[in-house]
Design a protein that fits this description.
- It contains 14 helices and twelve strands.
- With 365 residues, it is α/β, with parallel strands linked by helices.
- Helix 1 (17-32) links the parallel strand 1 and strand 2.
- The radius of gyration is 20 Å and the shape is globular.
- The mean pLDDT is 92.
């Protein structure tokens, strides 16, 4: 009988391409390792009337005033139901604890589940399952501090996780400072699958393959950034394509699900993004890309360190757009992906090795 592994992460939170695809990647990696896995569906708030009212209200509003976003949500919902293994619904922590015996191991990560913005949730630190079953794989703190209110409880929770890894070096430094523990820095799950493995999941798209375009994936609806991309596209005689969810420019936006999102990256000539996963997939698909800062560095809640970390890991700091390094200059400089891919392959093997060792140890108990 296959061992059963629970996954604690974001997978349908806010209809985010990166969040859902990293969950899909982890599920696929565990399957490749011979495990049965499922995403743990714990949402106590769904019992509340105000939650149900808010969710219904959102969809009514989108249907009436933003039909394209509504249609994208429908496509994404359908994809999630077809491609993710999701557990039964758990509506209380007590229920979750009582059911946790079914899991031989539970992994928390990746994505910003340790962001702790305004609160700290014991679910994301695996407090519902026996200590011997806990593995942290690439959770992200997303910033360079833990709120003073949560430092002590963060320390307690992290101390209780036997196999501890993190996605960014800044997070490892913060964990060392607070807990005294060494956290292994590993790749985001989307990077554990190589280019060929991702392409096997995707349908071919001849229309995109024969099109010349810049894929503009900006999580913030920044007209300044978008207009820069649009101006460059005119110079290069290319189209601009954006996902409907993150664009109010209907002439360039498309209603796309998660595999369609990946195909837009796969076939793009250039990519302009402010997203961590936009960078990760650009690297994996060997694309020429440029990165905008999503936040001002002076903003306390900035998450720019996630972008800085991945660029630095692959010696790609020149991909960042600044006052002295403009979009056209960045995108026109061709990068040698042989060296980058070699670095990525080495990090991929190290990260898969960590996950494999942690699983073997936990599953043997």
């Amino acid at each position: 009988m296959k061992k059963k592994v629970g996954i604690v992460t974001w997978y349908d939170s806010g209809y985010n391409y990166g969040s859902t695809l990293q969950a899909y990647a982890m599920q696929t990696i565990l399957q490749n390792m011979g495990c049965e896995s499922e995403l743990i569906n714990y949402k106590p708030e769904r019992k509340l009337f105000k939650y149900k009212f808010k969710e219904i209200g959102k969809r009514i509003y989108l249907y009436m005033f933003s039909k394209n976003v509504y249609l994208t949500w429908i496509r994404m919902d359908k994809w999630i139901k077809s491609n993710l293994n999701i557990s039964e619904e758990y509506d209380s922590f007590e229920q979750l604890k009582s059911k946790s015996i079914q899991y031989d191991a539970v992994i928390c990560g990746s994505d910003q589940i340790w962001n702790n913005d305004g609160s700290i949730n014991p679910f994301y630190y695996l407090q519902f399952v026996d200590k011997t079953k806990r593995i942290a794989y690439a959770p992200s703190i997303a910033r360079d501090y833990i709120d003073d209110r949560f430092v002590d409880i963060f320390n307690d929770y992290v101390q209780d996780i036997g196999y501890l890894s993190i996605r960014e070096k800044q997070g490892a430094q913060l964990i060392k400072k607070i807990t005294g523990r060494e956290a292994t820095v590993v790749l985001d799950p989307t990077l554990l699958l190589n280019k060929e493995q991702w392409e096997k999941q995707l349908p071919n798209n001849c229309e995109l393959e024969n099109k010349k375009y810049i894929f503009c994936y900006l999580l913030t609806k920044n007209d300044k950034y978008y207009n820069e991309v649009l101006e460059l596209s005119k110079k290069l005689n290319m189209e601009v394509i954006t996902p409907t969810l993150f664009s109010n420019h209907n002439n360039t936006s498309k209603n796309i699900d998660f595999f369609e999102f990946l195909n837009l990256i796969r076939y793009a000539d250039y990519i302009a993004t402010d997203s961590f996963h936009g960078v990760a997939f650009s690297l994996n698909f060997c694309k020429q890309f440029a990165v905008y800062k999503r936040f001002e560095d002076s903003y306390k809640g900035t998450q720019n360190s996630r972008i800085y970390n991945i660029l630095n890991e692959f010696n790609l700091n020149d991909r960042l757009i600044t006052e002295n390094n403009e979009l056209e200059q960045v995108i026109s400089e061709i990068k040698d992906y042989e060296t980058i891919s070699n670095i990525l392959d080495e990090k991929r093997q190290d990260s898969l090795g960590y996950l494999n060792r942690a699983l073997k140890s936990v599953l043997s108990k």
